[in-house]
Design a protein that fits this description.
Oligomer: single chain
Shape: rod-shaped
Order of helices and strands: HHEEHEEEHEEHHEEEHH
Distance between the termini: 100 Å
Radius of gyration: 56 Å
Number of helices: 8
Strand order of the largest sheet: 2-1-5-4-3
Strand content: 15-25%
Structural class: alpha+beta
Helix content: 55-70%
Length: about 400
């Protein structure tokens, strides 16, 4: 038979353990949600701040190129002065690799001194076509520069003669190598990174993995549905965050816009890095739960001992009383139900004593009365015997008298 102490511990400890595990799990989940939320907030702050910085950098170069366009549009500039001025500006401005004009006749006027092949026609180039579609100077699509063999982005604008006739397209190339280095240096957590894509066609413009530069992201991630959904939102000019998996690792990503060039900057941090700090919390929860259970077990051991010991004493008192020993006393002074039970036991003992005393007294009285009745009965018996003898004698005497009379 299991003791009361064992039963209490067997029932209470599992219930408390389940409660502690539930609280720990819910606390961990809540902490996880908060940590991921904070990670998104921090990553978005990094993405937005660096997107603004890159946008400012690009706008500065755009203004430089726009200044050259404004200067050569002056009526006093002839073609020789125009070319000379563009050459000086190419040398003067940092990160601007070339300033050039493609004419409606198919001619190429290049400020960097590049001589195009005989079959080169600027009118079929993407930068020329994009230049015809805008009114203000605007960054076009990034492309591989045939002269420097580097990824560049051109700022383009239609170029008109003084009479309003279209002369061609004016353009200035900004080297993306500097931007690539800027993006590569973006710190996202401890192991995170950032990359930048062109919203027009998802071309990788800047990426820590240089092999991906110039590759269209839509083709590189064709089988990754989550990443494709995020890219589509970024290409649509949205800013936000998303979660996706790549090579088995879950990534948290935030994307922000670089409006001057219609690009998206995407900051990425591994989820395992974000949740690493929760491993400490998880370990602490486990340790805390184990310590709490051990403390509770000790407390229950002593508390149940304090409850069970008086009951055991009462049990021994009850056994002694059952054997007829009414001299025992339940010596329990606690002011609780067990203490009251001990008082009731002692009262019951006293009542039993009184009852037995009364029974003894009645028994003695009954025994005395029985003796008296026995003595009276004996005397009555003797009297009856004498009467019987006398009757017999009278009967015999009558018999004799009757006999004599007959004679």
């Amino acid at each position: 038979m299991k003791s009361l102490k064992t039963k209490i511990m067997v029932w209470v400890l599992p219930v408390v353990l389940a409660a502690l595990l539930t609280v720990s799990f819910l606390g961990y989940q809540k902490a996880k949600e908060q940590v991921i939320y904070d990670a998104y907030e921090n990553t978005m702050a990094v993405a937005q701040a660096n997107a603004n910085q890159l946008d400012g950098w690009l706008m500065t170069r755009l203004k430089m190129i726009e200044g050259v366009n404004y200067a050569i549009s002056a009526p006093e500039f002839d073609e020789s002065q125009e070319l000379s001025y563009m050459k000086r500006m190419v040398k003067k401005f940092p990160n601007i690799s070339d300033i050039y004009i493609g004419t409606t006749q198919g001619d190429m006027i290049d400020g960097a001194g590049w001589v195009p092949p005989d079959d080169y026609d600027p009118r079929v180039r993407s930068w020329y076509k994009e230049g015809l579609e805008v009114e203000e100077i605007t960054f076009g699509s990034a492309y591989l520069d045939m002269n420097t063999k580097e990824m560049i982005v051109g700022a383009v604008k239609p170029l008109y003669l003084q009479d309003g006739t279209l002369r061609g397209v004016f353009a200035g190339d900004v080297e993306l190598k500097t931007l690539t280095n800027l993006v590569k240096d973006i710190q996202v957590g401890q192991t995170g990174y950032a990359f930048m894509i062109d919203n027009r066609d998802s071309t990788n413009l800047a990426n820590p993995n240089e092999e991906k530069i110039g590759i269209k992201m839509s083709e590189d991630i064709a089988d990754n549905k989550e990443l494709l959904e995020m890219m589509e939102k970024a290409l649509a000019g949205e800013s936000g965050h998303a979660t996706y998996k790549i090579d088995g690792d879950t990534k948290l990503a935030c994307y922000a816009q670089v409006p001057s060039a219609n690009w998206s900057l995407i900051a990425v941090v591994p989820e395992k890095e974000v949740l690493a700090q929760l491993n400490v919390l998880k370990r602490n929860n486990i340790i805390t739960t184990i310590i709490a259970i051990l403390i509770l077990a000790l407390v229950l051991y002593f508390v149940t001992g304090g409850i069970v010991k008086p009951i055991q004493k009462l049990s021994k008192v009850a056994e002694a009383m059952a054997r007829g020993d009414l001299t025992v006393t339940a010596e329990i002074k606690s002011r609780n139900e067990v203490g009251q039970l001990a008082v009731d036991f002692n009262m019951m003992r006293d009542k039993l004593r009184e009852l037995i005393q009364k029974i003894n007294q009645v028994s003695e009285t009954v025994a005395g009365s029985a003796a008296e009745m026995a003595a009276t009965s004996e005397e009555t018996g003797k009297g009856s015997e004498q009467v019987s003898i006398t009757v017999d004698e009278l009967a015999n005497g009558i018999t004799e008298v009757a006999g004599n009379m007959q004679q």
